[in-house]
Fold each of these.
Amino acid sequence: MSVISWSARLSAERRRFPKRLALLSKGVIAAILIAPLFAQTPSQPDWKALEPEMMQQFQAVLRFDTRNPPGNEHLVADYLKGVFDKAGIPAQIFALDANRSNVVARLKGNGKKKPILILGHSDVVTVDEAKWKFPPFSATRDGGWVYARGTVDDKDNLTGGLMTMLLLKRYNVPLDRDVIFMSEAGEEGSSNFGMQFMVNQHYPEIESEYCLAEGGGAIRIGGVAKYTTVETLEKIPRGIELVAHGISGHGSIPLKSNAIVHLAGAVARVGEWRPEIRFNETTGTYFRGLAQIAAPENAKYYRDVLSTDPKLRAAADQWLFENEPLHSSMLRTSVSPNIFAGGYRSNVIPSEAKATLDVRALPDEDPVKFLEQVKKVVNDPAVDVHFTSQNIRPASAFDARLDSEPYKVLEAAAKRVYDTITLPTMSTGATDMAPLRARGVQCFGIGAAIDMEDGPKGFGMHSDQERLLETELYRFVRYNYEVVVDLARAK
Amino acid sequence: MVRSAKALAERRRSPRRLALLLWLAALVAMQAQQPAPFDSAQGRQPDWRAAEDEIMRHYQAVLRLDTTNPPGNEHLAVEYLKQVFDAENIPSQVFALDPNRSNIVARLKGNGKKRPLLIMGHTDDVTVDASKWKFPPFSATRDGGYVYARGTIDDKDNLTAGLMTMVMLKRMQVPLDRDVIFLAESGEEGNSNFGIQFMVAQHFDQIDAEYCFAEGGGVTRIGGEARFATVQATEKIPRGIELTARGISGHGSIPLKSNAIVHLAAAVARVGEWRPEVRFNETTGTYFRGLAAISPPDVAAHYRDVLSSDPKVRAAADDWLAEHEPQHASMLRTSVSPNIFTGGYRSNVIPSEAKATLDVRMLPDEDPARFLEQVKRVINDPAVDAHFPSQNTRPPAPAARQDSEPFKAIEAANTRIYNVPTLPTMSTFATDMAQLRAKGMQCYGIGPAVDLEDGPKGFGMHSDQERLLEAELYRFVRFNYEVVVDLSRAR
């Protein structure tokens, strides 16, 4: 999914939470459990007391090896189905492939309003196990963090959605609209098993007015939550493949046409190239908002990158690339060469070498024109440049509106839970919201708070040390629950 | 390796009357039911025309055995050869460190006046990328006068010639002043521990000889004409260098400055474009001067210029050679060819590591440690590590002498059969002669005629269209036989 940094401030959070109140709310929850009628005026769950349960659910889903490929999301689907069954929440499994199932759970409302859908995907990207300090499916707790593949992509949202459903049920929150939860398979590159399948075959099961999924969250800088992002727009992933052809031969005789050398030159040039900067309404609002709340030394770069002076803009761009690569990617159609394969034996010059560029296009990018630009940068007739044939998510027809009810609710929750303002953002990663947005659903990307610094330090999403602060898991579950209650409870 | 052929011209030159006489002689021999004894005074020749079918049959038979290394399975070739030797009543014995990777030694006894002569051919092939081959790589398809297969010129040509020489010596009952030993060795392509290393360490008495012949030389055709013959008298020393780039892993939607693939690509591009300094030794000096003396003026100018002390003149000649005669460019220096590049495992994940392998062929006098420092300076990127991997290295040894009996016999045969002068040469690749030269054996690399243009056109050794002219196979067998007879027959 997308990256956005987040933040947690555990100690501050704990300090703000007086023991007396904790004790009091524990008592209240006990009362609610005994007398569910109290749920008419839902009081706050005792979040402190719920921490072990949240952690237990988070670790349980993290410990299922659902790397995709092959996926095996049925492990998570079966687990969740069991949890819903036990809680008395109606849930159903939908699968194109039995090993790659999806689960939909639904809490009925009074039907006054159209449903709200909470999404979490159950698959994770693959791992290079040798690189992990803690085994990638161990969900090891260390120094206040949980380490595992999926901690911030996307088993945090999965856990947030699951806990929200469980708590809504447990407290018998009366609802004006159905609340639907879906655990989907194949988000990481095979959505034909997940979102595509559900939208094409079982759309009535998930049809809704609003949806919440991954793609946003609070951003911590220097350990303090500075702002919260809500993803309202996303870039469109396009793969580009570079193929170099040369003459094969014996490695003892270097050849000018060496496919690996030509491809290396092409990849080096493309890797150093940064396509032109272009803003849209979401990113413009985002950077202007960021400039207002950021520390002056950083605010300068957010302002400068919006400048019409090319020199100021370029310097700010360079700073962002080195220090806040996420922001650098938001400015443009980005290109990241992520695979390079050529050669099979050290003494044989291969006749072919291939590289794959991960391209994230701005929503308004013209793919054909962009491909031409890449060819100009590659500038080598020995290297062929073409789009890969991969699952392409549709460009979303509707951006989520900033003046909508959910956006305002999200703003209020961020103020309350994280004490931050909310900025709309464009996700650099694609999400499964794209096909829903294409059908007119207002979708908003949310997520747990993470540190802006984690990505460049190698702790980010898809990295070999993917992690989440324990306290930020808890805080996110609360945020998730409060947003859904605010949007769905009977008024 | 460079070789060549002009079969048609050869046939035209051979007078019909002589052919008829030879044919009659053969007929007489057949009628006698057993071969007539070799008459050293008359120097009776085998009927090479009549032997073509048999030569082609053995050649295709060994080419059709899949001995790609790894895994090798050289025992397939050994079993074939053993059965041929048994049928011809030539004593032979199999030696194996691993039963699948056996070697075979055959010996024709002489009267012991002189120390033995060893003829070698290796049975293993480099691997293939079968999808790139027009004709299946183990089909030994005959097309347009060529035979196409992996191993046609590396090294089943020498294997076939050695086999035919043994068979002919036996059949013609050539009396010998020295034993003639044939060794078909396994593992030449990177695992000589199964082949020459094993034989030298464990069974040296079986192959101990005064002189040896193996791959590494041949006749060079330019524009379809045999121009000169080369005899490999020394060889470069192969040393792999591995480059490893390390960066931060992350999601491909956010390009990172530390991207390991981009850093490694830039390093490989720089190393691939770099040409280490030109340096001559006695063999290569003699070779280029000899070449300048026999080449047409326009080409000769480049051979002379590259020997020049004027750096500009030398650089221009070097550029021309790199473009037009890459194996000559490789003879001028320690060469570097980046042949493997692997990094990344998923298009949307920036990997934390990428690796490339450089095939380095060092001049015999190169200082490996100093050369590695030069490579590091060219790469000039602290994110990219360069080091020697631990692999089989061949021992350095003094060059074979040019004033020796075998060199003169080869020179004479080249004049007689190809009508070309002979130049001593340094092969750019390693051969199993390195281990024997280190034992004090005088070893000479020979081979069939191939076109100088074949390498750059993609028909060379280790290429995806490796091939040999049928007529040049026949001519090479004759050459091989005549040189061995010249050196070994009783006088």
Amino acid sequence: MTLDFADFYREAKDECLRTVVISTGDQEQAQDLVAEAFARACASWRKVSRHPNPKAWVVRTALNVHIDRWRSRRRELPLTQPMDTVMRDQDPADPAVIAAVRRLPERQRQVVALRLLLDLDTETTAETLGISPGTVKAHLSRAVAALREALNLKEQIS
Amino acid sequence: MNDADLPALLRDAVRDTHMTVPESDITRRAGTLRVRRWVAVGGAASAVIAAAALAAVALTAPAAPSVTSQNTVAQLTAWTVAKHPDGVIDVTIRELKDPAGLQARLRADGVPASITFSRDTSPACHDYYPGHPMPKTSVNMSSLDNGVFNGAQETEGVVVAIHPDRLPSDAGLQFAVYPEGTDTSHGVTVHTFAYEFGLVDRSPACTG
């Protein structure tokens, strides 16, 4: 059965956004990136709906989108609600965790987001990021160690 | 904190983060992307609006292709292919009939092409990405697409001007024009159509 885009968007939008927030460490940018990625998924829905993991497709696309392009196009196609305003109206994510994630190298953040938040397996994560499964494991191991250290330290201080 | 807590900690950190962009904005943006990827129609016109004009033309203005002494014109009711002395080929589509005939005509004029008058494009066709299969920038693709062909709404229908000399040697054209729905917003029923024009990899199975 073909997945309907509207149903997919309703079901996957928050999970994809949260994954990209963790991947990029930037909430405001993540909303724009994910919106653009979903728009591209919608534009190519015949193909994306057949993808083994459409959520992974959206997240990968969001990570590849250059934010400046989206903003320049947004001027031509105004959204009903400015995205920056949308983000300011929301509760910010836990600042300690986000700060710890933000200190990770970019690739480690992406691996953490895909493996631990989107719950992709190692092989799918590797395929999504275009790296080997061994590299995924190595990045995850280093990232978990760094986060453990950062967050334990934070707990001790507080 | 132990390692097993980490996924829950991450989820908890972003649990109040919600995507608030309405689906209507996403699909509207997607419509713009579709049009920009495939064809430039007078700037930022939407596929549905442009196609509605096509439908209206088809309903109200029976085909009456003009012939000039300096052009080679193939006359058919549904579409016209006009080859100009400078090599530019104009395709005018009025009704969604005989896609195979249009495809054969373009191929005979030296344009490798795949034409469908339905949403189902040939599975043998793949989007053309110069030099590398993935990925490409839309800016570069748009520039390349627009160099090869340009679409416009004319009173007689959708007119696409093709520059065969600008077509990369390993690329061909793909046109898909298909019914999109029915628009009753202005008190009359208008059948709308969408169209997608773009470059695809040249291959015997796709572009002949």
Amino acid sequence: MTAKPRLAVFKFASCDGCQLQLLDVQDRLLELAGRVEIDHFLEASSRVVPGPYDVGLVEGSITTGDDVERIREIRRQCRFLVTIGACATAGGIQALRNWGRIDDFLAAVYATPETIAALATSTAIADHVPIDFELRGCPIDRGQLLDLLTAVLLGRKPHVPGHSVCMECKSRGIVCVAVAKGIPCLGPVTQAGCGALCPAHDRECFGCFGPSESPNLVSLTGLYERRGTPRESLVRLVRSFNAAAPAFRAEGDRLEAGE
Amino acid sequence: MTEVRRFHVKSLARVEGEGSLRVRVVDGAVEIAEFSIYEPPRFFEKLIRGREIREVPDIVARICGICPVAYQLTACEALEKALGITVTSDIRRLRRLLYCGEWIQSHALHVHLLHLPDFLGVESGFALAATHPELVNRGLRLKAIGSRIMEVVGGRAVHPVNVTVGGFYRAPAAADLRGLVADLEWALVAAIDLVAEVSRCDFQGVPRDYDGVCLRPAVGYPVDEGRIVSTSGLDIDAADYDRHFSERQVPWSTALQSVMLPDEKPYLVGPLARVNLCRDRLPPAARLAAETSGLDFPLRISSHSIVARAIEIVAACEEALTIARDAMADISPCRIEYVPRAGAACHATEAPRGLLWHRYEIGADGLITGAAIVPPTSQNQGMIEADLKTMLPGVLGLDDAAATLACERVIRDYDPCISCATHFLRLTLDR
């Protein structure tokens, strides 16, 4: 390779927590900064070099008309586009507004809502432009981010598992919170990546990393319902940080419709 | 002939979130100085209505990836008041430790990667690493130690999973807490050095007698509780916040701006306000570092905030060290149980960027019926604009690029967290 790959980081509606992971890799940060040209990363640098870029990392969801235009231009400027985090991959917690009326949300927050531009929905980046890869999580995992960047530098496939948190939990030897404690847990249907963090803290997985491959949500929520968890509570469980991810969205809607 | 100059920074760099700056000067008089927040709103106060009490700390954490603990703990304390429960002193100490971790990582990030580049004339922390590698590496290690505290107590640094209403899901292992001691001993010394170094920076800006606002607890430095006090003599309970402060919508921003009543004046929150108002409450090493900094208190220039942040890193390391050293056994219980019931309460804590105020209402079914959140950056917005208007006449002799940079520097002095500022609500509650 003759020139260093050019990296760009972009932000849409989000908390900044995923791009912050890039600044939290400690000694690896400066090593990384030496291997790529960080040409657009507003949160960390005043140096902005126009595209095109080799790799674009996109955090956040699409919530305004301007966002729709901006992500299209970013797609044109980035050879390899990666969405990072639940906002970018599924619309994030702010996608809860997809189930309400935007006017109610605006009126609840602002005295003169007409000066605020907001779409009725919060949607994933992939709903607007094709993407090349996605990193799940709320937030993403630092290790997965470093692996992804290394993979891009080396031209290999990133090591991102498609299996469930349940598998990570078993391999860590954590006592199952769903079986032993009767706590409704999304571990069996959530993609691995966190290392079963929540069950390791004696609590339920709430689906930060979104649906795993081929999740059987109907079976899982059915089990929890038979064991006494109210249906409204199960709707809330699947409607959080990845509420609009297709498998979670479908299950929330099915439960709510009373099917 | 009328001379009109415009400066427009479309995307501010080295701040968290998306903001811009618009300045218009007509015949040497500053007509407009607007610090505009265009980050789209995410409507948090609305979307937590109808959620369960236990879900609130996880949801409000997502307001900010840099200070999630501030949101989680403010929410927990407010909800605990509404539920009529009190946590044990052991839980309170672990919460302080977690909060100290957040202060250390947030301040270390801002000081080294976002703010110092301005003083040393470079574009980023990456560029700084080439010229001052030991400085940047020390900063990254300080930040990592703050993050490590958050991992040990909270499970992870961004959006901790272990925080719940009533305490913690699982007691952090006492051995893991004591395992923080060696790093914290290093961090304390590093932070004391940092205060001495940043105190020698070239502080630009116009001195101002800030009306600072922060918490002042019965004992100790303000972190997780206290009365709200101000330089101008305010001394109120957090419950009376909305009688003394008000938020207003301005057309150039998606964040509401706060003002102090009755005069609707801007005010200052954050490290500078805290150090100025509570210097007598700093733990010994932090107080000594402040006293030997060579600076006169109260600090009166916005760029002095880099010193205030460094002093607070010392204070947070000192307090964290005490708590980690004293961890002899896993705390038990780690969580106080509660019975959901109707109620309402508010609470304020000191986020790294300043006063953070929450209010919640719980319905008879145990679900949230209303919420209001006032983050620090929306409170500082008015003061940032006032500072810009004060300093602009002094930089009009510079070319546009230099004048614009001077404006950007003032904004970065405040460490604005724009992501936090764009989703709060006037106190209008659904009934």
